[in-house]
Write a structure and sequence with these properties.
Elements: H1 4-12, H2 16-22, E1 24-28, H3 30-37, E2 43-49, E3 63-67, H4 69-73, E4 84-89, E5 104-109, H5 114-126, E6 131-135, H6 144-150, E7 158-162, H7 164-173, E8 178-187, E9 197-202, H8 210-213, E10 218-221, H9 237-250
Helix pairs in contact: 5-6, 5-9
Length: 251
């Protein structure tokens, strides 16, 4: 069973205001929920379809309610309710300045699309990037669409929201290389790339903002290899992130 108050709470988490207020978010689907079960993220409660047998063991200390298909429909954010939904606590994360000096970090300048953000988090997990620093206007990492798009990577990559301009200013003073992609940048395939530093990726429509661009000391270009004079003007930001990370890690 599930109370009306619990249904109301879960549905409210579709909005950032209530996620922040309650410090809670929702994860849906077997793979995602079980990835979170094996992470540091705290799962407060699990709701599962009453005729479904999980393929993994759910710890006894986690409250687990069995619901009908109709009850699951009342709390899902998906078109078709999955067999398992988890109510999770947002982790508390502190930014450690030492993190930026030992590996690559992604910085996001006002990424708006939840699908793009989720894919970038998934890419960070794939390429071993532990931290993503986001501008305060970047999409919320705990938006249900973002969480779903990460395919569990949200459990393994730490996201930090801060004043991105101030953050990059501080890192520049610490002599941290700061990279960004630009149409007038230098061909990424012909440049020396550091094993550590910050890679800035810009907004879907506007790219990297002028204020943030001033903080970047290494401008990169992903060149087009199309023979057509009418090729695409730019790449989707998540696609570009994958290409850039692959080239850094290939070296």
């Amino acid at each position: 069973m599930i109370s009306q108050n619990k249904i109301k709470l879960i549905n409210s988490l579709n909005k950032k205001k209530f996620r922040d207020q309650n410090r809670l978010f929702i994860a849906e689907g077997e793979k995602l929920v079980f990835d979170l079960l094996h992470s540091k993220i705290k799962i407060n409660e699990i709701f599962m379809r009453d005729d479904w047998q999980p393929s993994d063991i759910i710890p006894n200390e986690i409250a687990c309610a069995k619901l009908t298909e109709q009850q699951l429909k009342k709390i899902t954010q998906l078109k078709t309710p999955p067999p398992i939904i988890a109510l999770c606590s947002m982790p508390q994360k502190n930014m450690d300045t030492n993190d930026w000096q030992h590996g690559l970090t992604i910085a996001l300048d006002d990424i708006q699309d939840p699908g793009n953000l989720g894919t970038i988090i998934r890419l960070a997990d794939w390429f071993g990037i532990a931290h993503i620093v986001c501008s305060q206007n970047t999409a919320d990492a705990y938006n249900p669409k973002v969480v779903q798009a990460t395919m569990g990577a949200i459990a393994r990559v730490e996201l930090h929201y801060t004043n991105l301009e101030d953050f990059l200013t501080a890192q520049s003073k610490n002599k941290i290389p700061i990279y960004g992609t630009f149409l007038d940048g230098d061909n990424i395939y012909a440049q020396e790339l550091s094993k550590y530093g910050i890679i800035v990726m810009g907004n879907e429509g506007k790219g990297i903002s002028p204020a943030i661009a001033q903080k970047i000391n290494k401008k990169l270009l992903i060149p087009s290899f199309s023979s057509s004079s009418t090729h695409s003007e730019s790449l989707n930001v998540s696609m570009a992130t994958g290409i850039v990370l692959s080239e850094f890690k290939r070296r």
